[in-house]
Amino acid sequence: MHDRGRASGGGGEAEERRASLCAPPYARGQLQGSGDGGLCSLRRLRSQAGGPLLQPMQPRRPLQPRPRRGVTHWSDEAYRFPLQKRERLWLAVYGCKLTAVNFLSVKIASSDVGFPIHVYGTIIVRDSIDVRFVYHFRRDSNNCQLINSEAESLILTGPKRGLALCGDMYVETDLKMKDDLIQDRELSKGVISIRSASTGPSVTGYTFQTKSLATRLSTVDVSYTVVDRALEGTIAVEVLQGGFHGKIAAYTADMKYMLVLYDSEEADAMTVDDYGLLELLRPVVSVYVKDLLMIAAVTSDGKSERILFTPRINTRDECPLAVGATKLHVKLSWSVMAP
Known about the structure:
Elements: H1 2-21, H2 25-31, H3 39-49, H4 74-77, H5 83-94, E1 100-111, E2 117-126, E3 134-139, E4 145-147, E5 163-164, E6 169-178, E7 185-194, E8 206-214, E9 218-227, E10 230-241, E11 246-252, E12 259-263, E13 284-288, E14 293-299, E15 304-309, E16 316-323, E17 326-335
Antiparallel strand pairs: 1-5, 1-9, 2-3, 2-4, 2-6, 6-7, 8-9, 10-13, 10-17, 11-12, 11-14, 14-15, 16-17
Domain DUF6598: 101-331
Protein name: DUF6598 domain-containing protein
InterPro entries: DUF6598 (IPR046533)
Protein backbone atom coordinates (compact mmCIF):
# COMPACT_ATOMS: atom_id res chain seq x y z
CA MET A 1 0.00 0.00 0.00
CA HIS A 2 2.89 2.31 0.91
CA ASP A 3 4.69 1.66 -2.38
CA ARG A 4 1.54 2.16 -4.35
CA GLY A 5 0.92 5.52 -2.68
CA ARG A 6 4.50 6.55 -3.28
CA ALA A 7 4.30 5.61 -6.88
CA SER A 8 1.10 7.55 -7.15
CA GLY A 9 2.67 10.56 -5.44
CA GLY A 10 5.69 10.36 -7.70
CA GLY A 11 3.44 10.38 -10.73
CA GLY A 12 1.67 13.48 -9.43
CA GLU A 13 4.96 15.27 -8.78
CA ALA A 14 6.19 14.44 -12.28
CA GLU A 15 2.97 15.82 -13.71
CA GLU A 16 3.33 19.02 -11.70
CA ARG A 17 6.96 19.40 -12.77
CA ARG A 18 5.87 19.22 -16.40
CA ALA A 19 3.14 21.75 -15.67
CA SER A 20 5.65 24.10 -14.07
CA LEU A 21 7.82 24.02 -17.16
CA CYS A 22 4.80 24.82 -19.35
CA ALA A 23 3.36 27.41 -16.99
CA PRO A 24 2.83 30.97 -18.23
CA PRO A 25 5.65 33.47 -17.69
CA TYR A 26 4.03 35.20 -14.73
CA ALA A 27 3.62 31.87 -12.94
CA ARG A 28 7.08 30.69 -13.97
CA GLY A 29 8.66 33.82 -12.43
CA GLN A 30 6.93 33.21 -9.11
CA LEU A 31 8.06 29.61 -9.08
CA GLN A 32 11.75 30.40 -9.54
CA GLY A 33 13.96 30.16 -6.48
CA SER A 34 11.68 27.79 -4.58
CA GLY A 35 13.56 24.93 -3.04
CA ASP A 36 10.97 22.30 -3.83
CA GLY A 37 11.29 22.82 -7.56
CA GLY A 38 8.29 25.11 -7.53
CA LEU A 39 5.78 22.39 -6.65
CA CYS A 40 4.49 24.04 -3.48
CA SER A 41 4.25 27.42 -5.20
CA LEU A 42 2.47 25.81 -8.14
CA ARG A 43 -0.04 24.25 -5.75
CA ARG A 44 -0.52 27.67 -4.09
CA LEU A 45 -1.10 29.40 -7.43
CA ARG A 46 -3.52 26.69 -8.46
CA SER A 47 -5.53 27.11 -5.27
CA GLN A 48 -5.58 30.89 -5.72
CA ALA A 49 -6.77 30.58 -9.30
CA GLY A 50 -9.50 28.19 -8.28
CA GLY A 51 -8.55 25.62 -10.91
CA PRO A 52 -5.71 24.30 -13.04
CA LEU A 53 -3.35 26.82 -14.54
CA LEU A 54 -3.13 24.98 -17.82
CA GLN A 55 -6.47 24.86 -19.59
CA PRO A 56 -7.10 22.12 -22.16
CA MET A 57 -6.23 23.21 -25.68
CA GLN A 58 -9.21 24.27 -27.76
CA PRO A 59 -9.36 23.20 -31.43
CA ARG A 60 -8.68 26.03 -33.84
CA ARG A 61 -11.46 27.19 -36.08
CA PRO A 62 -10.77 26.44 -39.73
CA LEU A 63 -9.77 29.44 -41.78
CA GLN A 64 -12.53 30.73 -44.04
CA PRO A 65 -11.71 32.17 -47.45
CA ARG A 66 -11.79 35.94 -47.28
CA PRO A 67 -13.48 37.42 -50.36
CA ARG A 68 -12.43 40.66 -51.91
CA ARG A 69 -13.87 43.77 -50.27
CA GLY A 70 -17.41 44.35 -51.42
CA VAL A 71 -17.56 41.17 -53.52
CA THR A 72 -18.36 37.61 -52.51
CA HIS A 73 -17.38 34.96 -55.02
CA TRP A 74 -20.29 32.62 -55.70
CA SER A 75 -18.11 29.50 -55.73
CA ASP A 76 -16.87 30.19 -52.16
CA GLU A 77 -20.28 30.83 -50.71
CA ALA A 78 -22.59 28.73 -52.89
CA TYR A 79 -22.89 25.90 -50.38
CA ARG A 80 -24.34 28.27 -47.75
CA PHE A 81 -27.24 29.59 -49.77
CA PRO A 82 -30.19 28.19 -51.70
CA LEU A 83 -30.36 28.59 -55.45
CA GLN A 84 -32.02 32.02 -55.33
CA LYS A 85 -29.27 33.61 -53.22
CA ARG A 86 -26.58 31.77 -55.15
CA GLU A 87 -27.77 33.33 -58.40
CA ARG A 88 -27.77 36.78 -56.78
CA LEU A 89 -24.17 36.24 -55.69
CA TRP A 90 -23.22 35.16 -59.19
CA LEU A 91 -24.88 38.26 -60.64
CA ALA A 92 -23.14 40.51 -58.11
CA VAL A 93 -19.78 39.34 -59.43
CA TYR A 94 -20.33 38.74 -63.13
CA GLY A 95 -23.67 40.31 -63.98
CA CYS A 96 -25.93 38.70 -66.57
CA LYS A 97 -23.21 38.34 -69.20
CA LEU A 98 -23.32 34.63 -69.99
CA THR A 99 -23.64 33.66 -73.66
CA ALA A 100 -25.86 30.73 -74.59
CA VAL A 101 -26.87 28.81 -77.71
CA ASN A 102 -30.25 27.78 -79.10
CA PHE A 103 -30.11 25.13 -81.80
CA LEU A 104 -32.71 25.89 -84.44
CA SER A 105 -32.50 23.10 -86.99
CA VAL A 106 -30.40 20.21 -88.32
CA LYS A 107 -30.94 19.50 -92.01
CA ILE A 108 -29.57 16.98 -94.50
CA ALA A 109 -28.45 19.62 -97.01
CA SER A 110 -27.34 17.04 -99.58
CA SER A 111 -27.52 13.30 -99.90
CA ASP A 112 -25.57 11.12 -102.32
CA VAL A 113 -28.34 8.53 -102.20
CA GLY A 114 -31.12 11.04 -102.87
CA PHE A 115 -34.45 11.49 -101.10
CA PRO A 116 -36.55 10.29 -99.36
CA ILE A 117 -34.42 8.62 -96.69
CA HIS A 118 -35.13 7.08 -93.30
CA VAL A 119 -32.77 8.53 -90.71
CA TYR A 120 -31.93 7.36 -87.21
CA GLY A 121 -29.04 7.78 -84.79
CA THR A 122 -27.95 10.51 -82.37
CA ILE A 123 -26.96 14.17 -82.27
CA ILE A 124 -25.38 15.25 -79.00
CA VAL A 125 -23.95 18.53 -77.71
CA ARG A 126 -21.22 19.11 -75.12
CA ASP A 127 -20.54 22.45 -73.43
CA SER A 128 -18.23 23.65 -70.68
CA ILE A 129 -20.86 23.44 -67.93
CA ASP A 130 -20.94 19.65 -68.03
CA VAL A 131 -18.77 17.32 -70.10
CA ARG A 132 -21.62 14.85 -70.31
CA PHE A 133 -23.51 15.05 -73.58
CA VAL A 134 -26.95 16.54 -74.07
CA TYR A 135 -29.15 14.78 -76.61
CA HIS A 136 -30.83 16.78 -79.36
CA PHE A 137 -31.80 13.85 -81.56
CA ARG A 138 -32.06 10.21 -80.51
CA ARG A 139 -33.82 7.49 -82.51
CA ASP A 140 -33.19 3.81 -83.03
CA SER A 141 -33.67 1.82 -86.22
CA ASN A 142 -37.26 0.97 -85.28
CA ASN A 143 -38.19 4.64 -84.96
CA CYS A 144 -36.69 6.34 -88.00
CA GLN A 145 -37.63 9.80 -89.21
CA LEU A 146 -38.60 10.14 -92.85
CA ILE A 147 -36.78 13.00 -94.59
CA ASN A 148 -38.36 13.87 -97.95
CA SER A 149 -36.14 16.80 -99.04
CA GLU A 150 -33.15 18.90 -98.06
CA ALA A 151 -35.51 21.60 -96.70
CA GLU A 152 -36.88 19.31 -94.00
CA SER A 153 -35.23 19.39 -90.57
CA LEU A 154 -34.71 16.62 -88.09
CA ILE A 155 -37.09 16.81 -85.16
CA LEU A 156 -34.98 18.04 -82.26
CA THR A 157 -35.86 16.75 -78.80
CA GLY A 158 -33.64 18.84 -76.57
CA PRO A 159 -32.00 20.29 -74.72
CA LYS A 160 -33.20 19.60 -71.20
CA ARG A 161 -31.07 22.48 -69.83
CA GLY A 162 -29.51 25.69 -71.14
CA LEU A 163 -26.30 25.42 -73.19
CA ALA A 164 -23.63 27.95 -72.17
CA LEU A 165 -21.01 29.20 -74.60
CA CYS A 166 -18.40 30.22 -72.01
CA GLY A 167 -15.97 27.79 -73.69
CA ASP A 168 -15.91 25.78 -76.89
CA MET A 169 -19.02 23.76 -77.71
CA TYR A 170 -19.06 20.54 -79.72
CA VAL A 171 -21.86 19.01 -81.79
CA GLU A 172 -21.37 15.32 -82.52
CA THR A 173 -23.43 13.62 -85.23
CA ASP A 174 -23.85 9.88 -85.61
CA LEU A 175 -26.62 9.41 -88.16
CA LYS A 176 -27.45 6.29 -90.13
CA MET A 177 -29.73 5.56 -93.04
CA LYS A 178 -32.05 2.58 -92.95
CA ASP A 179 -32.25 0.50 -96.09
CA ASP A 180 -34.57 -2.50 -96.33
CA LEU A 181 -32.74 -3.95 -99.32
CA ILE A 182 -29.16 -3.79 -98.06
CA GLN A 183 -27.42 -3.21 -94.75
CA ASP A 184 -27.95 0.14 -93.02
CA ARG A 185 -25.34 2.69 -94.02
CA GLU A 186 -23.61 5.51 -92.19
CA LEU A 187 -25.09 8.82 -93.26
CA SER A 188 -23.12 11.35 -91.18
CA LYS A 189 -20.52 10.97 -88.45
CA GLY A 190 -18.30 13.79 -87.25
CA VAL A 191 -17.87 16.78 -84.94
CA ILE A 192 -18.70 20.47 -85.39
CA SER A 193 -17.00 22.92 -83.02
CA ILE A 194 -18.49 26.26 -82.00
CA ARG A 195 -15.88 28.70 -80.73
CA SER A 196 -16.83 31.01 -77.90
CA ALA A 197 -14.79 33.88 -79.39
CA SER A 198 -16.16 33.52 -82.92
CA THR A 199 -19.04 35.92 -82.35
CA GLY A 200 -19.10 39.43 -80.97
CA PRO A 201 -21.91 41.25 -79.18
CA SER A 202 -25.07 41.74 -81.22
CA VAL A 203 -27.38 44.72 -81.25
CA THR A 204 -30.48 42.52 -80.99
CA GLY A 205 -28.88 40.02 -78.60
CA TYR A 206 -28.91 37.18 -81.17
CA THR A 207 -26.40 36.08 -83.81
CA PHE A 208 -27.59 33.54 -86.36
CA GLN A 209 -25.05 31.07 -87.73
CA THR A 210 -24.95 27.87 -89.77
CA LYS A 211 -22.13 25.32 -89.88
CA SER A 212 -21.84 22.39 -92.27
CA LEU A 213 -20.38 18.93 -91.82
CA ALA A 214 -19.51 17.12 -95.04
CA THR A 215 -19.11 13.34 -94.85
CA ARG A 216 -19.01 10.50 -97.34
CA LEU A 217 -22.73 10.25 -98.11
CA SER A 218 -24.19 13.59 -97.00
CA THR A 219 -23.71 17.16 -95.85
CA VAL A 220 -25.41 18.19 -92.62
CA ASP A 221 -26.23 21.84 -91.88
CA VAL A 222 -26.54 22.82 -88.21
CA SER A 223 -28.26 26.17 -87.65
CA TYR A 224 -28.13 27.89 -84.29
CA THR A 225 -28.33 31.29 -82.67
CA VAL A 226 -25.89 32.70 -80.12
CA VAL A 227 -27.72 34.53 -77.32
CA ASP A 228 -25.95 37.37 -75.48
CA ARG A 229 -26.66 37.94 -71.77
CA ALA A 230 -28.89 34.91 -71.74
CA LEU A 231 -31.39 33.69 -69.19
CA GLU A 232 -32.56 30.09 -69.11
CA GLY A 233 -36.32 29.65 -69.36
CA THR A 234 -37.79 26.29 -68.34
CA ILE A 235 -41.31 25.80 -69.68
CA ALA A 236 -44.15 23.55 -68.53
CA VAL A 237 -47.62 23.35 -70.08
CA GLU A 238 -50.60 21.88 -68.25
CA VAL A 239 -53.91 20.93 -69.86
CA LEU A 240 -56.78 22.15 -67.67
CA GLN A 241 -59.73 21.49 -69.94
CA GLY A 242 -60.26 19.58 -73.17
CA GLY A 243 -57.67 17.85 -75.29
CA PHE A 244 -54.98 19.69 -77.22
CA HIS A 245 -54.24 18.72 -80.82
CA GLY A 246 -51.76 20.96 -82.57
CA LYS A 247 -48.43 22.67 -82.03
CA ILE A 248 -46.91 24.82 -79.30
CA ALA A 249 -43.91 26.96 -80.23
CA ALA A 250 -41.66 29.56 -78.61
CA TYR A 251 -40.07 32.61 -80.19
CA THR A 252 -39.01 36.10 -79.18
CA ALA A 253 -39.49 39.63 -80.45
CA ASP A 254 -35.97 39.68 -81.92
CA MET A 255 -35.59 35.98 -82.75
CA LYS A 256 -38.35 35.23 -85.24
CA TYR A 257 -37.42 31.57 -85.70
CA MET A 258 -39.95 29.37 -83.93
CA LEU A 259 -38.75 26.59 -81.66
CA VAL A 260 -41.33 23.79 -81.66
CA LEU A 261 -42.01 22.77 -78.07
CA TYR A 262 -44.84 20.31 -78.73
CA ASP A 263 -46.38 18.63 -81.76
CA SER A 264 -49.28 16.23 -81.29
CA GLU A 265 -48.64 14.64 -84.69
CA GLU A 266 -45.22 13.37 -83.68
CA ALA A 267 -45.07 9.82 -82.43
CA ASP A 268 -42.56 10.74 -79.70
CA ALA A 269 -44.74 13.49 -78.27
CA MET A 270 -46.93 12.11 -75.47
CA THR A 271 -50.27 13.79 -75.06
CA VAL A 272 -50.60 14.18 -71.30
CA ASP A 273 -48.94 12.50 -68.33
CA ASP A 274 -50.64 11.54 -65.05
CA TYR A 275 -50.46 15.14 -63.79
CA GLY A 276 -51.96 16.75 -66.89
CA LEU A 277 -48.62 18.08 -68.16
CA LEU A 278 -47.70 17.89 -71.82
CA GLU A 279 -44.45 16.09 -72.59
CA LEU A 280 -42.56 18.86 -74.38
CA LEU A 281 -39.96 18.11 -77.02
CA ARG A 282 -37.87 21.13 -75.97
CA PRO A 283 -38.67 22.39 -72.47
CA VAL A 284 -35.76 24.88 -72.21
CA VAL A 285 -35.14 28.08 -74.19
CA SER A 286 -32.36 30.67 -73.77
CA VAL A 287 -33.57 34.27 -74.09
CA TYR A 288 -31.78 37.62 -74.25
CA VAL A 289 -32.37 39.40 -70.95
CA LYS A 290 -33.89 42.49 -72.65
CA ASP A 291 -36.14 40.54 -75.02
CA LEU A 292 -39.69 39.19 -74.76
CA LEU A 293 -40.57 35.48 -74.90
CA MET A 294 -43.76 34.47 -76.69
CA ILE A 295 -45.51 31.12 -76.36
CA ALA A 296 -47.93 30.40 -79.21
CA ALA A 297 -50.41 27.53 -79.50
CA VAL A 298 -51.98 26.54 -82.83
CA THR A 299 -54.69 23.88 -83.01
CA SER A 300 -55.12 21.44 -85.85
CA ASP A 301 -58.19 23.37 -87.07
CA GLY A 302 -56.21 26.64 -87.39
CA LYS A 303 -57.10 28.48 -84.17
CA SER A 304 -54.18 30.19 -82.49
CA GLU A 305 -53.38 32.25 -79.39
CA ARG A 306 -50.20 33.52 -77.78
CA ILE A 307 -48.96 34.90 -74.46
CA LEU A 308 -45.93 37.03 -73.58
CA PHE A 309 -43.36 36.69 -70.81
CA THR A 310 -40.73 39.19 -69.73
CA PRO A 311 -37.37 37.66 -68.71
CA ARG A 312 -36.73 38.42 -65.06
CA ILE A 313 -33.86 37.02 -63.09
CA ASN A 314 -34.75 34.28 -60.65
CA THR A 315 -38.54 34.46 -61.00
CA ARG A 316 -41.46 32.20 -61.86
CA ASP A 317 -44.34 33.22 -64.10
CA GLU A 318 -47.70 31.59 -64.77
CA CYS A 319 -50.30 32.49 -67.34
CA PRO A 320 -53.47 30.83 -68.72
CA LEU A 321 -53.70 30.14 -72.44
CA ALA A 322 -57.11 29.40 -73.95
CA VAL A 323 -57.19 28.29 -77.57
CA GLY A 324 -60.43 26.99 -79.02
CA ALA A 325 -62.14 24.65 -76.56
CA THR A 326 -58.84 23.85 -74.82
CA LYS A 327 -57.62 25.62 -71.72
CA LEU A 328 -53.90 25.47 -71.03
CA HIS A 329 -51.79 26.77 -68.16
CA VAL A 330 -48.20 27.77 -68.96
CA LYS A 331 -45.54 27.91 -66.24
CA LEU A 332 -42.15 29.47 -66.79
CA SER A 333 -39.11 29.52 -64.51
CA TRP A 334 -36.20 31.91 -65.19
CA SER A 335 -32.72 31.12 -63.96
CA VAL A 336 -29.09 32.06 -64.55
CA MET A 337 -26.65 29.51 -65.99
CA ALA A 338 -23.53 29.54 -63.82
CA PRO A 339 -20.33 28.60 -65.68
